[in-house]
Design goal:
- The chain contains eight helices and 15 strands.
- Helix 4 runs antiparallel to helix 5, helix 4 crosses helix 8 and helix 6 crosses helix 7.
- It is globular.
Length: 400
């Protein structure tokens, strides 16, 4: 083979490597998203069962982390090019109770009070296989025991906001379809919120997810920014395309919907890969070196760094220079909050919701959705019933 031919072959190989397909048009990628989704749902189901009186928040966070890590480790065990496929937690387990909306994942030295009957618990987590991310969030009320059908009481306000947030998530997921615009989804969520008389939490956004990217460029606001609030940023318009993946994230409040950082320490961070800076403090350099090695792209909890004392000393300089993005624990003191999140895949057959649990049956409301929302919810229920029937038929066939 001549040197010119070798160059051509070499260029072809490089081109093949460059054009690796990392969206849902690749069936292997689709499988990885689905496997990560199964693990997220399994961990979420386990955590729901563990949310009982006396349960410690730290224990719950570690339980969820262990489930996801252990389950992910069972998959893709063969090495590729001498390396194991990266897999594990894509968003640390957060257990946010009562007025805390999200991102609460405490250190062992800063544990808050154990769960008690009637506490409103929001669970948030994520898993990935080879960088392909699945996420979910769920809201529940702590029951007297795991066997109890429902908590002793769930007030009307809470039931109403939970139904509103869950239905808004379903409607938003159905509205994220190839060719639709993000403004269509914002209008659909706003319509649900108005029908139930609740307020979307403005700081919560839905995001496109890509390989190793949790918060992609395309995003969806839960409501249009109001002229009275200059802090709210308008989301740039975008159109959804087939083979994309989205985190459908909805949080709603019976109050003003303005979630604010409180006194709790921020423990969840993400490396900002676009920023570089020569840090002055030794502890900061140690923290950044460990983050770059263990968590180069996805969020992590300070708990999972090797030396938490050093991490606490060095983290502030990393934040000050934009090397790490903090995820503070946000509070909503003006009302009760419900938070639900699912992952959707935009497949050729349509939008597929692959994570998230059913709404707990003890959440109910006397208020009714608007006609358009009702229609969408009926279509979703019909599709799910059809799917369940098909699954049961398949199961019975196997038994025979």
């Amino acid at each position: 083979m001549s040197s010119d031919e070798e160059d051509i072959v070499g260029d072809d190989v490089e081109e093949e490597e460059e054009t690796e397909v990392t969206d849902l048009s690749n069936s292997d990628v689709c499988t990885k998203y689905q496997e990560a989704s199964k693990i997220v749902n399994l961990a979420l189901e386990g955590l729901v069962a563990q949310c009982i009186p006396g349960a410690k928040i730290l224990d719950l966070c570690e339980f969820g982390h262990t489930v996801m890590t252990a389950q992910a480790a069972k998959l893709y065990t063969k090495k590729v090019d001498g390396k194991l496929i990266d897999r594990g937690v894509s968003f640390p387990v957060c257990i946010s109770v009562n007025d805390i909306v999200c991102n609460h994942s405490p250190l062992a030295t800063e544990e808050t009070a154990p769960l008690k009957v009637g506490d409103i618990v929001k669970i948030d987590l994520g898993c990935h296989i080879d960088g392909y991310i699945a996420v979910a969030a769920h809201t529940l009320v702590v029951k007297e025991s795991p066997d109890a059908e429902a908590p002793p009481t769930v007030d009307e306000e809470l039931g109403n906001v939970a139904v509103a947030a869950y239905n808004a998530m379903l409607v938003a997921a159905a509205s994220i379809a190839a060719g639709a615009k993000n403004s269509d989804v914002t209008l659909a969520v706003d319509r649900v919120a108005k029908a139930y008389g609740v307020t979307p939490i403005s700081s919560v956004r839905m995001h496109q997810m890509k390989r190793y990217v949790l918060d992609g460029v395309k995003e969806v606001a839960l409501k249009e920014p109001s002229p009275e609030d200059p802090e709210e940023e308008k989301v740039p318009p975008c159109t959804f395309e087939q083979a994309e993946v989205y985190a459908v994230d909805v949080a709603m409040s019976t109050g003003d919907g303005k979630a604010r950082p409180g006194e709790l320490r921020t423990t969840v961070f993400k490396r900002n890969v676009e920023k570089q800076y020569l840090l002055k403090v030794k502890a900061s350099r140690q923290v950044l070196a460990e983050v770059d090695k263990k968590f180069p792209t996805l969020p992590f909890s300070l708990r999972h760094l090797s030396d938490i004392r050093t991490a606490r000393l060095g983290i502030n300089e990393c934040i000050a220079h934009g090397l790490l993005t903090p995820y503070p624990s946000l509070h909503e003191y003006s009302g009760k909050v419900a938070h639900f999140k699912c992952t959707v895949l935009l497949l050729p057959s349509g939008t597929s919701r692959v994570t998230g649990l059913s709404l707990p049956p003890y959440f109910s409301t006397n208020k009714e959705a608007d006609e358009e929302t009702k229609k969408i919810l009926e279509q979703i229920a019909e599709a799910e019933a059809k799917k369940a029937k098909k699954k049961a038929k398949k199961k019975n066939k196997k038994k025979k």
